[in-house]
């Protein structure tokens, strides 16, 4: 933790199966409340009511509302990374990985709308939550792109800038087609976006 960060430490992780189950129930309840109402309109009492636990129980697992919010963003990051690893694993080239990854990302957001709303909401709660979430993906993405360039799979270029560009494409497609209004065919969205990624805008 940076020296300038004065936030108190979160309660320790539960040591028993029962404690873990209670913490997971609080996370699920928080996901529903935050995802439905937004961070600022949500309250700890609503979360505990949704989880069907006493108010005091909440503080055994999280120190305050922001703490459980941060935990949810981390939970989203871990779930999404696992989902992408699983669905991109069959790819034998970086371009295959790009298409499979985009399709997997959009399907994930479609099934986890509340979690993704929470990630987007994190910018207004604390910019470091939001930037930290995307920085993790950008660093991983940059390394993959640099490796693909070394292997001659893609043209030379700035891996970091490219990573943020590709993340931006996925992020806004997720907002438009997974959160706001689902298209008749998500495959067509993926095909159109991948064509842009693979070939750019120049006349071919």
UniProtKB/TrEMBL annotation:
Keyword Repressor appears in the UniProt entry: yes
Highest taxon listed in the record's lineage: Bacteria
UniProt-listed Pfam families: TetR_N (PF00440)
Region (Disordered): 1-22
Entry annotated with the keyword Zinc: no
InterPro entries attached to this UniProt entry: DNA-bd_HTH_TetR-type_CS, Homeodomain-like_sf, HTH-type_Tx_Regulator, HTH_TetR, Tet_transcr_reg_TetR-rel_C_sf
Residue stretches making up the HTH tetR-type domain: 20-80
Protein keywords: DNA-binding, Repressor, Transcription, Transcription regulation
Name of the molecule in the record: TetR family transcriptional regulator
Species this chain originates from: Cupriavidus malaysiensis
Organism taxonomic ancestry: Bacteria, Pseudomonadati, Pseudomonadota, Betaproteobacteria, Burkholderiales
């Amino acid at each position: 933790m940076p020296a300038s960060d004065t936030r108190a430490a979160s309660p320790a992780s539960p040591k028993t199966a029962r404690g873990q189950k209670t913490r997971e129930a609080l996370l699920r309840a928080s996901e529903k409340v935050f995802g439905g109402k937004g961070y600022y309109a949500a309250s700890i009492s609503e979360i505990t009511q949704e989880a069907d636990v006493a108010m005091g129980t909440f503080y055994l697992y999280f120190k305050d509302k922001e703490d459980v919010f941060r935990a949810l963003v981390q939970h989203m990051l871990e779930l999404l990374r696992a989902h992408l690893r699983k669905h991109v694993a069959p790819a034998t080239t970086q371009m295959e990985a790009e298409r499979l990854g985009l399709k997997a990302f959009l399907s994930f957001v479609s099934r986890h709308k509340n979690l993704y709303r929470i990630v987007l909401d994190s910018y207004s709660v604390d910019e470091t939550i939001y930037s930290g979430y995307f920085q993790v993906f950008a660093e991983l993405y940059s390394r993959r792109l640099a490796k693909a360039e070394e292997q001659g799979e893609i043209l030379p270029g700035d891996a970091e800038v490219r990573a943020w560009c590709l993340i931006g494409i996925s992020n806004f497609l997720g907002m438009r087609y997974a959160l706001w209004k689902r298209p008749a065919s998500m495959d067509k969205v993926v095909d159109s976006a991948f064509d842009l990624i693979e070939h750019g805008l120049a006349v071919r």
